[in-house]
Amino acid sequence: MVNEEGKIAPAPWVPFTRAGCDVGNVSVANTVLQNNTSDVVNVFGADSPEANETPAQKTADFVGIAIHCAQGSSSICAAPDGNPKADPLPDEPGGYDGFQALYGHKYVAPVINGGNTDMTDLLGEPLTGFPGFDGMFPKVTGAYVAKMLEAGVQVVFGYISDAHDSHPSGPAFGPGSTGYVAQLQQYEQGFAAFFYELKTHGIDETNTVFVVTADENDHFAGVTKTGCDGVTTPCVYNPGEIGEVQVLVNQLLTAAGITTEYGIHFDMAPGYYLNGNPSETDPVTRQFERVLGNLTIDDPYLNQTVPLSVGLADRASMKLLHMVSGDPLRTPTVVSWNESNAWVQTGNGTPVSINPAFAWVHGGIQPEIAQTCSGSSARASSRAASTTRRGPTTPMCGRRSWPSWDWRTTIAMMEG
Q1: DSSP β-bridge partners for residue 299
Q2: What is the pTM of this model?
Q3: Can you tell me the distance from the alpha carbon of 178 to that of 184, in angstroms, rounded to the nearest whole number?
Q4: DSSP track, 151-201
Q5: Which of 10, 137, 219, 346 is most buried, by CB atoms within 10 Å?
Q6: For 55-109, how does the pLDDT look when each residue is reduced to its tens digit (9 = 90+)?
Q7: Residues 40, 109 share a domain
Q8: What residue numbers bound the domain in which 397 lies?
Q9: CA nearest 338: which of 244, 242, 240, 216?
Q10: Residue 249 contacts residue 349 (beta carbons within 8 Å)
Q11: Residue 171: is the preceding peptide bond cis (ω within 30°)?
């Protein structure tokens, strides 16, 4: 999140809070506390009671949930049950002094749940703390989002864990498998309960914009099954028929004659950091890139030998792709986008194997990964009301509806 000038990128909630809107965030990366160590210390202090809770309790109490607050007595941060802390953004253009936020279930739940920290999810199960980023089912995320909206938080962002893994510890599901179908049914129940809950409190498409999108799509690494649909006939995946193709690239590079030492960020699109930080035109760099680009693997799902890399980017290319930040130590020597089934790391053992723990690969440039979708729902209206759910400008934060042209213009801009 550091730009080419060494500054932290502007925070996405700032236009709303400056305009008088509170902004809720439910399990959304870079908007909430994401760990139970340094993040907790930075907000509450090393000697605080919060920092001295057990690790598990700190996760439940402070990670994953936040409300970034507007200034003034109407903000939810001013509620009697609130315990707001500073919301420092030292690099924010134009400054951001005097703003506060509520961090974690322990301090958010009371202000959205009638003073109580014990909540229930949308299907009636206890919700006494943040369950972790892999436990954010629609019934959980929806419970937080609904409570925030009902408490008057005007803008809320929520993240939902993917449906294709058995959370929290796996394994991965294949399309049409019994576990996948059952989990999707629970997701549908959670979504239905979410919209029903909001509607009973007067919040629906007539006064609220609902946007559903994906941060990225995934490619399924496994055998494509036929003769099953998951509804009447479940799909069954035998050992060796599901799982990412794990590639131990250090063994392939060594076998190809590479002796240069390097670091690597394990990924479907790993970044390689050559020791000594040679320039992009250095012969050592060029030789490494040539060898890397010529590596091949036997893909067990394709039943053929394929290139490991489908694309490479050196630092000049990364700059064109806006992949270079203000911290030169974070810029790899080269990035390799791999073939669609491959996950690349280093290690000992079989150079190419199937890892059944993970089967949905993302981060690549394949169309099924890079092309994602967004769906929005709102009914255009020109009626004014007391509360809004949308808008980075003060008038919008004081309205529940907006002129019909506003929504159409937004769609036109998104379509380019």
Answers
A1: 304
A2: 0.86
A3: 10
A4: TT--EEEE----SSB-TTT--BPPTT-HHHHHHHHHHHHHHHHHHHHHHHT
A5: 137
A6: 999 999 999 999 999 999 999 999 988 899 999 999 999 999 999 999 999 999 9
A7: yes
A8: 14-219+373-415
A9: 244
A10: no
A11: yes
